[in-house]
Amino acid sequence: MAEHLHLIALAGPTASGKTAAALAVAERWPVEIISVDSALVYRGMDIGTAKPSAAERAAVPHHLIDIRDPLNAYSAADFCRDARNLVGEIRARGRLPLLVGGTMLYFKALFEGLDDMPAADAEVRAAIAEEAATLGWPALHAQLAEVDPATAARLEPQDSQRIARALEVWRVSGQPLSAFQTRQGRAPALQEHVLIALEPSERAWLHQRIAQRFEQMLHDGLLDEVRALRRRGDLHADLPAMRCVGYRQAWALLHEAGDAELSPAQTERLRETGIAATRQLAKRQLTWLRSMPGRHTLAADADQALAQLMACVASHWGAP
Fold this sequence. Notes:
With about 325 residues, the chain is α/β, with parallel strands linked by helices. It has helices spanning about 20-25, 55-60, 75-90, 105-110, 120-135, 135-145, 150-155, 160-175, 175-180, 205-220, 220-230, 245-255, 265-290, 305-315, and strands at about 5-10, 30-35, 60-65, 95-100, 195-200, 295-300.
């Protein structure tokens, strides 16, 4: 049976203004923010994840930020467990849980339930990696399309991490990953929730914000941040943390340059590939978001977006 824990979720693609919107809500209601972001969980990854600043986190309690070392993966099942516990704790304190982020798989798992999927199998995963090294990830994506077309349809042919996991699930269980994601979850869903979606009406508006933000990340020291991660010596490019948008592109170019200063041409290539990858991420986020039923959609680029958000929150939580 589902738990009935009243909460509001604020979702949207990257650069759609979720953090600013959440902080505005927190100025009027006694909220604690639960991050729904698969990159913000990692320590030492601040610039490239657009992590809320120390001042912002001091002003409003934030959860599920800086809880993992980049060496250690964080799954949707981990998120569901942690988020469910936090929702109960926040409500017990007499405060309001506000879930904010853009990792749509986490939202889907929390709100629709999460079935028990096969655990990682190192032997199978190694075999898949060996095949990819020989055949290339597009060929493995084609293999996935034959056994799990639903999952393959939402993955890019170079999305090695997710293609590998989907093939691993198929080879271990004989069932497609999509079957685990669509059946009744064994972990109960949080049914009593309100999902507010920030969905820009103009693609150009979002693209401009993505470009501006990536440029700011470069200015703020994204390359130095990735250099520091590389200097640790225990991280590698195939870790989920290092495959986050921005980090993956910076890691590859720093590897190519031997961690020396990038040439102007390499820096421009990083700018172009980073912005392009972020646009693709936003496109995938919007596709996921639009498949989620019952959401309240607000145009993030509308002049009255913030006022509409406040009205929507007030309709569920009451006047502040």
